[in-house]
Amino acid sequence: MLFFSVTSISPVCFSMFGVDIYWYGIAYIVSIWLALFYAKKLAGKGDILIETVPGTLQYGLISSEKLRQYIDSFLPLACVGIVAGGRLGHVIFFDILYYAKNLPKVLCIRDGGMSFHGGLIGIILAAAWFTHQKKIRLISYLDLLAMVAPIGLAIGRLANFVNSELYGTPTTLPWGVFFHDTFEPRHPTQIYEALTEGVLTLTILAIFYKLKQKRRPGELSIVFLLCYGISRILIDFVKDSSHYMGFTVGQWLSIAMILGGVLIMYTFSRQHKLT
Question: Can you tell me the distance from the alpha carbon of 219 to that of 228, in angstroms, rounded to the nearest whole number?
């Protein structure tokens, strides 16, 4: 039985002036650029309805052109939220004891260690501050971010694959993969996640976006959270990760994320009496 191997793939794409440029860094740049392009395309269609703050609850008050300007101005803040949140999430959720003893290592992002759930919290906080400044409703703006988030997930997981990290448990399936530090074929869980959290979630969101013309603000966000959460929970069963009370840290965080997302959506629906 033949198995694929990534041992010949270097995580370094190229070097410039003595500095190694990693595929992971390039993945961030490409995914942010594609997400920006897709978000502005959606804004141009005028179907993502961004409302003003409570007190003026009519839809469509922000023009497509204005929304595109907001997307451009939000980009630097989004990058800070994703990177800072992703790094702190990894530190706090996955290896707090190690970093408590090695505080300078917290800033060593090039050594690896980013958390999706931390990045999610980071960009939500960034969006909360941004929408407060622009006097628009957060829940509506998060729908736009939810539509483009799977792009980054798909590309980021491919970078994980190249880096030989976050792989799965041993397998005899024909698509098992030998990674840099493994001696038996493993589940390519990075590819599973790229296809489910990325491609499948993006497809489901696009279908939901296209077929359901009358959407309550927040529905797209909930669809994203459900798709990601369910995918992550299922795939982590074959991921080579530590378990706590029967589940991985990623699974526990995903369960909390789904429950929190549904609760927030219910709260907003009740508060604003959405129809």
Answer: 14
- Whether residue 199 contacts residue 158, with contact meaning beta carbons closer than 8 Å, is answered with no
Beta carbons of 145 and 42 less than 8 angstroms apart: no
- Prediction pTM value: 0.87
Question: How many helices and strands, by DSSP H and E, does the chain display?
Answer: 9, 6
pLDDT at 274 over 50: no
| E strand or H helix at 16 | strand 12-16
CA-to-CA distance for 193 and 154, rounded, in angstroms? 7
Tell me the two tokens of residue 74: 């939000």
What pLDDT, on the 0 to 100 scale, is given for residue 57? 45
pLDDT tens string 116-150: 999 999 999 999 999 888 888 888 889 999 999 99
Instruction: Assess contact for 148 and 16: CB atoms under 8 A.
Output: no
Domain count, the chain: 1
Whole-angstrom distance, CA of residue 59 vs CA of residue 62: 8
Distances 209 to 43, 45, 58, 104 between C-alpha atoms, Å: 13, 12, 20, 44
273, pLDDT greater than 60: no
Determine the average pLDDT of the residues in 238-250: 88
Average the pLDDT over 202-231 and give the result. Answer: 87
What distance, in Å, lies between the first and last C-alpha atoms of the chain? 56
Domain membership of residue 159 as a residue range: 4-272
Q: What is the largest CA-CA distance in the chain?
A: 65
How much of the chain is in helix, strand and coil states, percent to nearest 5?
65, 10, 25
CA distances from 99 to 83, 85, 230, 273 (A): 17, 15, 30, 45
- Greater confidence (237 vs 273) lies with 237
